[in-house]
Design a protein that fits this description.
Length: 221
């Protein structure tokens, strides 16, 4: 069998890496035309089996877009006012006319988020925690969607350094996996997923009007 040179192998790896990394940039034409200044984050739709996921998630959803330079309406106040208007269920909110929802608050855009995964998978020696979200930003004027994205974050505790005793290491792994399964910490993962979703060049949200670099990232978005 022909032996490949190190240069040839390295070149193949570089080409493969480039193919994986070259994600097409989103089309921001509609976004730039609308140029939203305020974003209304409505109650999230929960497709996971954890009934508490929406409440935990909402606590992580407002900071990333606010730091991008957009005014974000207080999510708890939004939820309460929507309930008063007859939209007490997240599915009802997501199926309602975006322009009507935006008009209630005077918002430029409405951000809809669905929780697709919020779970911890126990595999005896390890526990993998996964969160996955789908984002959709719609115009408060026309109801058109001008930004969509999905984000997944996975966490699995790193194996501890060997103590020199295989039995002690095995017990430590079992304990660590059991603790993670019993009380998985989803919040840091959700927070990181939201940050990644809105800040990633060519995929996230351009800087808003309340950001010092507003409209200075046109080459990236």
């Amino acid at each position: 069998m022909t032996r490949k040179s190190p240069f040839f192998i390295a070149l193949c790896l570089i080409l493969l890496t480039g193919c994986v990394a070259s994600i097409p940039k989103k089309d921001y034409t509609k976004f730039r035309t609308e140029d939203p200044k305020s974003i209304l984050i409505v109650p999230v739709v929960n497709r996971s089996i954890d009934v508490d996921a929406p409440d935990y998630f909402l606590s992580t959803a407002t900071l990333p877009p606010a730091e991008r330079g957009y005014y974000i309406f207080p999510v708890n106040l939004v939820k309460r006012l929507l309930e008063d208007d007859g939209l007490s269920d997240a599915d009802l909110v997501h199926s309602a006319d975006p322009t009507r929802v935006a008009e209630l608050f005077g918002a430029d855009a409405v951000l809809y988020i669905s929780i697709l995964q919020w779970n911890a998978k126990y595999l005896v020696l390890s526990t993998t925690v996964t969160v996955q979200f789908a984002y959709s930003l719609k115009s408060g004027k026309t109801g058109e969607t001008f930004w969509e994205h999905s984000e997944t974050m996975v966490y699995s505790p790193q194996q501890q350094q060997s103590s020199g005793s295989p039995l002690a290491d095995l017990i430590a792994q079992l304990v660590s996996a059991a603790i993670t399964k019993a009380a998985p910490n989803y919040v840091p993962l959700a927070r990181q997923a939201n940050a990644n979703a809105v800040t990633r060049p060519g995929q996230g949200l351009p800087t808003g009007p309340y950001h010092e670099k507003y409209k200075q990232d046109m080459d990236q978005f």
